[in-house]
Amino acid sequence: MQQAYSNLSDGLGKSASALVRTPLKKYQYGASAGSALATAVRGIPAAAIAPVSACASAAHSALLGLRNSLDPEHKKESMEKYLGPTQTHNRD
């Protein structure tokens, strides 16, 4: 659940950055209001996609955690497959 929360938080942060932080910084560093507004408009597609991607990633993490808690043997097999048998014992 922590990984899911982190994924969701990162996606929302990216969305906020594209819409607010980047244009505001541009304006603070001397760009005109029109230029800062244009930067915000160009950030709309990324700002729209970031939360959707974050939700999908959060759902994936939550479901993976649920599967691992319901089937610890499958988790152990996955850990051995990707980390090797010696690494698995250190993570349990």
Automatic annotation (TrEMBL):
Q: Which GO terms describe its biological process?
A: autophagosome assembly; autophagy of mitochondrion; glycophagy; lipid transport; piecemeal microautophagy of the nucleus; reticulophagy
Q: Where is the composition biased (Basic and acidic residues)?
A: 70-80
Query: What's the protein's topology in the membrane?
Result: Peripheral membrane protein
Family note = Belongs to the ATG2 family.
Please verify whether the record's keywords include Translocase: no
| Known catalytic reactions | a 1,2-diacyl-sn-glycero-3-phospho-L-serine(in) = a 1,2-diacyl-sn-glycero-3-phospho-L-serine(out); a 1,2-diacyl-sn-glycero-3-phosphoethanolamine(in) = a 1,2-diacyl-sn-glycero-3-phosphoethanolamine(out)
Sample GO molecular function, one term: protein-membrane adaptor activity
Disordered: annotated span: 69-92
Q: Which InterPro entries match?
A: ATG2
Entry keyword annotation includes Zinc-finger: no
Tell me where it mainly resides: endoplasmic reticulum
- Species: Linum tenue
Q: Name one GO cellular component term.
A: phagophore assembly site membrane
Q: Where found? A: Endoplasmic reticulum membrane; Preautophagosomal structure membrane
The name this protein goes by in its record: Autophagy-related protein 2
Keyword annotations from UniProtKB, A to Z: Autophagy, Endoplasmic reticulum, Lipid transport, Membrane, Transport
